[in-house]
Amino acid sequence: MGIIAMTVFLRTKMHRDTVDDGNIYSGALFFTLVMIMFNGFSELAMTILKLPVFYKQRDLLFFPPWAYALPTWILKIPITFLEVAVWVFATYYVIGFDPNVGRLFKQYLLLVLTNQTASALFRFIGAAGRNMIVANTFGTFSLITLLALGGFILSRDDVKSWWIWGYWISPLMYGQNAITVNEFLGNSWNHVLSDSPKTLGVRVLESRGIFPHAYWYWIGVGALFGFVFIYNIFFVLALTYLDPFEKAQAVIPDEREGESIQLTPVGNSSGDRTAPGDSGSAIRRRSVSSGSSSVRTEAIRNVNDNKKKGMVLPFEPYSITFDDITYSVDMPQEMKNQGVVEDRLELLKGVSGAFRPGVLTALMGVSGAGKTTLMDVLAGRKTGGYIDGNITISGYPKKQETFARVSGYCEQNDIHSPHVTIYESLAYSAWLRLPPEVDSEKRKMFIEEVMELVELDSLRGALVGLPGVNGLSTEQRKRLTIAVELVANPSIIFMDEPTSGLDARAAAIVMRTVRNTVDTGRTVVCTIHQPSIDIFEAFDELFLMKRGGQEIYVGPLGRQSCQLIKYFEGFEGVSKIKDGYNPATWMLEVTSSAQEASLGIDFAQNYKNSELYRRNKDLIKELSVPPPGSKDLYFRSQFSQPFLIQCMACLWKQHHSYWRNPPYTAVRFLFTTFIALMFGTVFWDLGSKVERKIDLSNAMGSMYAAVLFLGVQNSSSVQPVVAIERTVFYRERAAGMYSALPYAFAQAIIELPYIFGQAAVYSLITYSMIGFHWTVAKFFWYLFFMYFTLLYFTYYGMMTVAVTPNQNIAAIISSAFYAIWNLFSGFIVPRPRIPVWWRWYYWACPVAWTLYGMIVSQYGDIQDRLNTGETVEDYLRSYFGFKHEFLGAVAGVIVGFTVLFAFIFAFSIKAFNFQRR
Question: Does the pTM of the predicted model rise above 0.70?
Answer without folding.
Answer: yes
